[in-house]
Amino acid sequence: MALTMKTMTMARLQQLIALGLSALAGLWALAAVHSGRPAWAGAGLAAIVLGYGLFMAVEFAVMWVVHGDDPTPRANLRQLLGAWWGAVCAGPRVFCWQQPFQSGRHPDHLPPQAQARAVLLVHGYVCNRGFWNRWMPRLRSRGLPHLAVTLEPGFGSIQAYAGQIEAAVRRIEQATGRAPVIVAHSMGGLAVRAWMAAHDAAARVHRVVTLGTPHHGTWAARWGWTANAREMRPGSALLRALEAAEGERALGRWTCYYSHCDNVVYPASTATLRGADNRHVPGRAHVHLMDHGDVFEEVVSLALEA
Question: What residues in the chain have per-residue pLDDT under 50?
């Protein structure tokens, strides 16, 4: 079978991108040295780094403008700069190393007769289970069972991920006999909602924690052309169907973390749900929400509940 965008795993796609950029930088350096201009080699690398930083700066500028009259307080310059730097540092680590080359580094951990609830980790758009590589060793060190999924195909419909989440929850139920705590980043929160609607599964979870999930869509999705990106546009058929299938009472066990510096999901309040425990995390970029210590400790606390 020919390898296409539809059949290629996210890890393989990001490997090709990372290796391609590395090869381009290497060829540039060789050409610079061969032409007797070694200083150009450093200039080429600087151009890649500065170009990435500039691209991220444009994202934050658009987010700030689109904020409009959103009820979430508007970020100040210091918060924006801090979030931009967090995104610049976290992005290459996640998308050029953890996900393409380290997605299998930490296996799922579902020991028999575990005393705590298991944590199910669900990644977001253009991601895989490697997104959670910093979480999994910490969960294990705290004695918490956990399972991280990779939702494939990476550019498929969000509704199609429901079956994969169902299989993961069944594994946890069989291993622990208890309802899990689900933690979902970005699009992963919509996949969890789609799973709940498809399997009438609201009673099969202890708590759900979402980080920067576009529950009401995101302005940035208007530029997306893939099936799951289109489903994250405000007012999409998927979002309307999920809202119609849910009640505020069912969302009472949800905690939604969101930020006014989220450079992917904005305006900020689109990452909240009526009836959920909505918690604003100031000054955090989209990917960098994962590294907030309070979020991790809250998940640990929920997993240790009776």
Answer: 1-3
Is 0.90 surpassed by the pTM of this model? yes
Contact 175, 112 (CB under 8 A): yes
CA dist., res. 271 & res. 146, Å (int): 25
Q: How far is CA 183 from the centre of its chain?
A: 10
Residue 158: HSE in the Cβ half-sphere, 13 Å Cα cutoff: 33
Measured torsion, CA atoms of residues 226, 152, 114, 181, in degrees rounded to the nearest 10: 20
pLDDT tens, residue by residue, 97-137:
999 999 999 999 999 878 899 999 999 999 999 999 999 99
Q: Dihedral sign for Cα 150, 152, 155, 159, please.
A: negative
**Phi/psi at 266 (nearest 5 deg)?**
-160, 160
Q: How far apart are CA 207 and CA 189, in angstroms?
A: 12
pLDDT score recorded for residue 248: 67
Q: Which residue has the tokens 């890890």?
A: 11
**61 alpha-carbon distance from chain centroid:** 21
